[in-house]
Design a protein that fits this description.
The chain has about 180 residues and is mainly alpha-helical. About 55% of the residues lie in helices and about 0% in strands. The chain has one domain.
């Protein structure tokens, strides 16, 4: 203390002082499950907000298949390593369950919105590989979620892929393998 005033060293005890506004542009990156869950929540909320088209009835799909067979049948490598996407699937499913408590139409709105992108891209790109279509769907969703001068954080980009995988796994986009596919 000098003259009754507390004196700080150069580190400032993590305090900031300035004559005007202080803008702290320091970003700390931690890759934790909380970051992924938060990113998934942001992405799902953003997609839900962007889903402005009317709700459509989607009949329940009772034909059984495995995700691995569907991936192989559609010749998709985008979801490698599959274990990462399966973990993300469960994060998305849990978050949709939470959001559906507030609005039961949440999952339907999100599904219809992503299906809209999928159909639009598939129509425009008839000769594209399945991987390229998935890449374009993710890119369109990311573009719709960001502002003009903003980028999605790495966790949010991964969350978009997890949401698209969830819709894929629920068989809302791409073709199911035929029932005899596993025996071929």
């Amino acid at each position: 203390m000098i003259g009754g005033k507390h004196q700080q060293d150069i580190s400032g005890n993590n305090n900031m002082q300035a004559g005007g506004d202080v803008i702290n542009n320091i970003t700390y990156y931690q890759n934790t499950d909380v970051d992924i869950l938060s990113a998934i929540e942001k992405v799902l909320s953003g997609i839900y907000k962007n889903a402005q088209n009317g709700e459509e009835f989607t009949p329940i799909d009772t034909k059984s298949y495995t995700i691995e067979n569907k991936i192989n049948f559609n010749e998709i490598s985008y979801f490698d390593p599959l274990e990462d996407f399966q973990e993300g699937y469960h994060y998305v499913k849990n978050q949709i369950k939470i959001l559906s408590e507030v609005d039961p139409a949440c999952e339907t709105s999100i599904t219809q919105h992503i299906k809209h992108y999928y159909r639009k891209i598939r129509r425009k790109n008839t000769n594209c590989s399945a991987d390229k279509i998935i890449e374009k769907v993710c890119s369109e969703i990311e573009t719709a979620l960001i502002g003009k001068n903003t980028r999605l954080a790495l966790e949010e980009q991964k969350a978009v892929e997890f949401v698209v995988f969830y819709i894929f796994a629920e068989c809302k986009i791409f073709d199911k393998p035929p029932s005899d596919y596993a025996s071929q």
